[in-house]
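Q: I'm writing up a methods section and want to include an example of the input and output format. Could you take the sequence below and give the corresponding predicted structure tokens, formatted cleanly so I can copy it straight into the document?
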Amino acid sequence: MPTENSSIDQFHSKSDYDTALADPSLMIIDCMATWCAPCKIIAPELVKMSNTHTAARFYKLDIDEVPEVAAELGVRAMPTFVMFKDGKKIGEVVGAHAAALEAKVKEELKNGAGAETDVEPKEHEILK
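A: Here is the clean output for your methods example:
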């Protein structure tokens, strides 16, 4: 469920993560912990980004609540922001670097990560 005044959802299980991963649009996961001071410092910036870049989906992953996903993502420091498109990891920002994260989100959105995909088959995809 999104937090107040933002469009950031939180993963509460591996199943939540797997469901979100199935969506092909740009997804940013904030791998954080409630006891992590840098995570708390960057949180308001992440809310701003989620409200500004609405073509992207933002999620929080508390590494203590869903450690199996944190392990799968290879999280070794907090915060770590992991980016996915089409179910594949496309980038990562380690540390509370709001400017670097925003630049990466803008880059991926500019590259079409948040755009709708063509529904028309390409000529080479048509079975003859």
